[in-house]
Amino acid sequence: MLPPVGSRRPIPAPRGDPYCRPVVARRPGPGIHCLTAMWKADIKPGAEYALREARSPGAPLQHVRILQHVRGKKWKAEWIDPNPGLVEYVESQNLIARWKDRHSVLRDEERSQRLRQHNDALGYSEESPIARALSVVFDAAGEKGLSFYRGILSGPPDALDRVKVRAGIDRAKHSPLAHVDRDGTSHAPFDEALDLAKAFCAKEPAAVLVRVEATEEDWSRKAAAPGGDYIVGLLNEYRAAWALIRQWAGHDAAIAQREARIQRLERLVWDAIYALQKAGQDDEARRLRRAVERE
User: Does this model's pTM top 0.85?
Assistant: First the structure.
């Protein structure tokens, strides 16, 4: 069964890196990103579509009408413009959107291109510690759908607003290049994401440092174990990003780290209590429970 309109179909991220965002294909619907192919189930004979032979932003759109499905992803199409009357076979991945939606497609492409050019002018690098740090911070914020990927902070507008409120930033404050696309998703450039991440770390250091401490501890343990060589490089790369996050967390970082460790220890104690109860050692479980509750 096909996923609903607008749903995502994830392609697994590279092994070992939980912060690496997967590439996604999205089923066409209102506002779906123009560089994704249309799903076969959404292509209807008799309907008119925007076709792109070269699948890259800025490539010209051609106006075609689908005549019939041939097999697999292949369709028989009649050109309306250019070369009216020409009949050829086309692939699903070259059909970008319904013809009536082409202006929205082009508008979103132009906005995305401006964001990329702006980030390039700022010297943004996908492999920099700052990029990794931003990914970690917004992942730790816990807002569903909000993520930093390839220099862009994207997600539901309400999720972005909530993070701004938590960070003590005015929700109305945003970059002139920030926008909401035709799918209803907010997009903000690198510099806005950086300012927000720093403010968030300063306001909620524990929320971010719990994730940092837990991940560093887990990866360090795996790196020290037999066969753990695969994660050593990743661990070294992220240590620079984690150092930045600790700096952004400010003067409360040490306190937040201590609180994070205490929280992890408390969880371990409660796990032990439940394990003792399951094993039938109720006396030991009650003893530990009383000790925890006294604190």
Answer: no
